## 1
Amino acid sequence: MTTLSPANRVGGATREFVRHRGPVTAVAGIPGSRAVVSSAYDGAVARFDFGSGAVELLGYHDHLANKITVNAAGSLAASSSSDYSVNIWDLGRGSLARRLIAHSDDVEDFAFVDDHLGVSVSRDCRILVWDLDSGAVLRAIEGHEKDVLSVNCVGDQIFTSGDDMTLRVWDLRSGELLRTWGPFDQETDSCAVDPIHRRAVLGCDDGVVRIFALDSGKSVAEIAAHASGIKRVAVSPVSGDILSAAYDQRLLVWDAESLDLKAELDSRPTTWERSINWSPDGAEIIAGTFDGTVLHWDSRSGRCLGELGERGAGNACLNDVSANAAGEFATVSDDGRVRLGHFQAANATWLSDAEPTTGPVLANAVVLDDKHGLVAAGCHDQKVVLFDKLDGSLRPRWELPLGEGPINCLRVAQSRGCEGQIFAACYSGAVVCIGPEAEILSRARPHDGAVKALRLHPEDRRGVSCCAGGSLRSWNFAGEILHDFPGHLAIVDDVDIDPSGKLIASVSRDFTMNVYDLSEGRLLRSFSLGRRSPKAVCFFDSDSVIVSNYWGSLTRFDWRGDTVVSRCIAENGISSLSRAGDHLIAVSYDGGAYLVRPSDLRVVGELRGMRQRLVPSPLITPAAVEA
């Protein structure tokens, strides 16, 4: 176990980390108490006590912690992680009891059957049944065709949903598939079970809550609940009321009997939808935030009762970067601030930072455009925010709500006649073109699912984009599809165009990096990335492609030959890469911006928005980090 209760020294000052330094992915109540446990993207597991106000970090995973659940007795918690493990925590002692290792990709969820049995699901498409006393796998269940994201156990049945757009029921003892609902036309990120009314509840990416009878399998109802993708559904353990949370930032409670809207929770801009949950007694609703804190609401009135954890500090987990040839760069982060920095020779300096006039909100996308003197940010609340860049400072100009879900990527057109137009890649599947005075010029839908990234040709009126559904396409500015690029079998995380405009490179959750001819749509090379999930790709020059991953490493491929160079530079995932003259700038969820020499991937300059961990976790070994 890693406990950060002893004082730690940073920058000459003695202090403790008693809060998450990353977004809180999940919160679960401990029965019979006023305490909850949480998991977060800093890899930590924490305990928050609403009675005393105390916050304690129990320990760390080697990587992102995606979910946390508690058994019925309140004696054990299970945290699921992108380090491919499940940690079982003894809540009485506040220590790590056991580590479950058998998955070969991110573990996304875990459910306790009882104190001795548990079930986990993973992006390796498998369901594993565990003996919690010995740590042995009792059964591996296969059948899902894509990543499995959600699991519930009721009696002798397992309920799972995931990226193959199905909800499935399995026999716990035999592993036999008992029933499949779907495939639906959209992703199904979250499922829940109501044993009181014998119903299964499914949250879908079209904003609809779908409800099915457990005994007959028939559809009971469809609730048009949200205007964007649902990231979480949960059922009250007392009443069966349904909680739904979506990217439209509405948190809704539906009456178990009438299925009418019963309450809407007070909105808090930092709430992460995927983390929301019921308290064990059903009286409250709890959730985590991008700021590393925990919120709770009265479940009847929807009134927010308070927030636990350090307020206002924010988490400078850096999510995107855009740089110019002189080493100046812009970055955005979970704390909702846009930062300007500069790497020059041996000097590294933060120049300024700013936030939208309506207040800070998580931003995933940024673009710096020297030609037009602007920086644009794309936010979780579906807005594009434009800043004028003047002498190293940022001045807000306008904010524009797009209504297309969170914005994942922004780019500025340089082609003749379209200079200064901003293209936004949206969760809804749309690519929106915006004029310099905040006018929407066009909306195209090149993909059926969330657009993860886009790039624009340096001269022509065309672009390329990739999707959570696995598609990779080029299109012209009129919205016409030019080419489908075959080859990826899972989420395509990022794409880049080489400086000449002739080639593209893409990375996917199928653990491959592909290089294509842009004009012909032809696959030229494909490279294996091992078993480390990629995040960003940069076509640094016509011969070199650099890939980052969620483990803090960079890999450079000389794609025409076979030379490969790898180096770990960060303590968490590297979210984004950008060319900066003769160097590369990489930013990380660990709060660092790194100036990298492309030839050997060594860091030659560093700026920090924050430090995510004070001391290395004993669970992390150098061998694990370098693997």
## 2
Amino acid sequence: MKLRRKIELLSPAKDKNCGREAILHGADAVYIGAPKFGARAAAGNSTEDIRELCAFAHVYDARVYVALNTILLDDEMEEAERLIWELYRAGADALIIQDMGILNLDLPPIPLHASTQTDNRTPEKVKFLEEAGFTQVVLARELSLEQIRHLSETTSVALEAFVHGALCVSYSGQCYLSAAISGRSANRGECAQYCRLPYTLVDADGKVIVSGKHLLSLKDMNRSEELENLLDAGITSLKIEGRLKDVSYVKNITAFYRTKLDGIFARRPEYGRTSSGRSAYTFQPVPEKSFNRGFTSYLLHGKDPDITSFDSPKSMGEPAGKVKELKGDSFTVSGLKTTAIHNGDGLTFFNTKGELEGFRVNRAEGNRIYPADRQALKPGTLLYRNLDHEFEKLLSKPSAERKLSVSMELLDNPAGFTLVVTDETDARIMLSRPFEKELAKQSQEENIRAQLSRLGNTPFEATEVKISFSQNWFVPSSVLAEMRRVGVERLLETRKIRYRREWVKPARYRENLHSYGEEKLTYLGNVANKQAASFYQSHGVTQISPAFELEPQQNAPLMFTKHCLRYSLGWCPVHQKQQSPWREPYYLLYKDRRLRLEFDCKACEMRIML
């Protein structure tokens, strides 16, 4: 029988609580920020919190990956090494890293995952990382299904792909705009998100082409309809973006993708999940109800004109209908797209200037809405709901249970009774209690099954209770309760002992003699410390430029992006066969900032210069 290929649903965790909820709502693994050196500087967590999260996750055979994915400076390397050992001892299952200098440190045998910040786009790069010792590689979001399939066919390392969440407009790890303008480096976890600002596009003569639009802002990714395609292309880990997102987002989106994946696994037995247990929800997951700028599957099938959110970088929400009639301090809505609008909901609309505005619903009576304050609405205005008050109320409470199924058998023995408990992973315990047996006056089966099935707030759920008595013995409820309690404790301890973290030989013990493939490394290599330079030198690189953060480049591209404004505006000479009516070069203007645009049609990229 062919073994199932194990598929991982990987959810974000801003903190310990988000991580727990991600696991309860069906995640096979979570990724969480280290106390320092994570690519989301605002999402660091203590080692003790990570230890507690690991202990919780491992009950369900779920994993915890710790993001330590910034580039490091020389004076940070010793602290990073010490922190990595602390995380290993805390139970972390893998580290997500960007800085190759880490591979030259004295590391524990912990798996390393290559962050998307390492710009993983080509078979050569992924193969190099595999040979360097990485066990999982996070692919660039820009890759098409065809490119992913080719990568899978030419490498054997586990491949991870984003399926949901915010999109960086630049290749991850190759954006220096924030560092150049404000000194806040994206590669150091401090991105100022200049891509979400409103810009005015002008031509070489200063003529305005587009005014005050968010021309570098993309929609959010949603590949929920492409999951099967991604699995068939060779993806093993499906990643939800969002280490800065709140817990309701994590609950809703994790549950949504868990449900989708389980549906696929039911049809496609060659795929299976990596963790144990099943989640049940008190709500129906709907991704449109969580923060989003509109959705796109993003370049998965090649060029796509519908990837941008030029009008606003804010959460637009789900379609909610159209303004029908204005009357006094209220208005009516026609064509309600979702469930009824409730008191306290948040509605948004685009005003006559094309700007996104929002307001709270003070009172809703059917399709008549009383806003909290007067709005500049007109009949025909499209409405969106970016806050569903009733939905958020559900998510603010316990909204999921995750249970491991167990079968229980109670037997008699010469000295008393024996309880055998076996869970869905075949973890098994057996315990016996001496008891002076006496025959019961009536059947005991109903009471025994009821007592043993009361697993309450434990991670277990009894799916079978078998009674194997030679005679109808009387068993007091207190004895049954005590055997059940001890049985659960021992099964949990057994699961803890059985859990096996992956062991990987540290890089310093490996014969990494393979070549990087290039002799020269520019600022795009993000080399910020001597250990990283030494790593690349050992792989044949002879000329290494310092990271942009150490030596800011003049007249160098600060952003590389597949998003192209010529294409978005209909002037792509390759795909649309159109000539722009404006004289190049184009510039993006924001206050006193002036960004020059360059277009590389051969690479199908737009580049941004300061």
